[in-house]
């Protein structure tokens, strides 16, 4: 049986070779979240907006509370998000069929165009990521997944600690 070769790094080397690149990737992801794309509509959309559009496409006639749950945001945040998307003519609000008080949210034709373009974008992005990772061995992928999971737990713990202060 083949044994794994362990790499021993000094703390400073570990920070420079592993933690710093992770920080750069996280920073780039945060920067990406602040950028817009028009997804073929001519109207700039932030990632949070296009994700809401994609979710509404998956759940036609969705109520605001349900949408907030799907997106993992508060109802107040969902309300502001939908107001922006109504102004951008991506979604329409109306009363649900057979109801006088339940609001149903749906995509406009422009919103459907954005959702379709977003699907194409996600597929292209996924293909690029597959190209990057397909040469990685199963063992290395398992290690990457484990490290990612542990890092996520650690970051969630830090967030909870800061929220208590």
UniProtKB/TrEMBL annotation:
UniProt keywords, alphabetically: DNA-binding, Transcription, Transcription regulation
One Pfam family from the record: MarR
Domain HTH marR-type, chain residue ranges per copy: 11-153
GO MF term set: DNA binding; DNA-binding transcription factor activity
Organism domain of life: Bacteria
SMART domains cross-referenced by the UniProt entry: HTH_MARR
Name by which UniProt lists this protein: Transcriptional regulator, MarR family
């Amino acid at each position: 049986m083949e044994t794994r070769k362990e790499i021993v790094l000094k703390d400073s080397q570990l920070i420079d070779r592993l933690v710093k690149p992770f920080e750069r990737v996280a920073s780039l992801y945060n920067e990406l979240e602040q950028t817009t794309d028009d997804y073929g509509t001519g109207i700039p959309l932030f990632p949070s907006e296009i994700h809401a559009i994609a979710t509404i496409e998956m759940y036609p006639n969705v109520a605001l509370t349900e949408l907030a749950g799907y997106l993992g945001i508060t109802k107040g945040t969902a309300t502001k998000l939908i107001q922006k998307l109504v102004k951008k003519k991506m979604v329409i609000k109306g009363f649900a069929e057979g109801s006088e008080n339940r609001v149903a949210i749906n995509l406009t034709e422009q919103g459907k165009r954005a959702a379709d373009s977003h699907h194409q974008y996600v597929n292209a992005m996924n293909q690029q990521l597959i190209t990057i990772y397909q040469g990685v061995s199963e063992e290395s992928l398992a290690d990457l997944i484990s490290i990612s999971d542990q890092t996520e737990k650690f970051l969630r713990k830090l967030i909870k600690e800061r929220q208590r202060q």
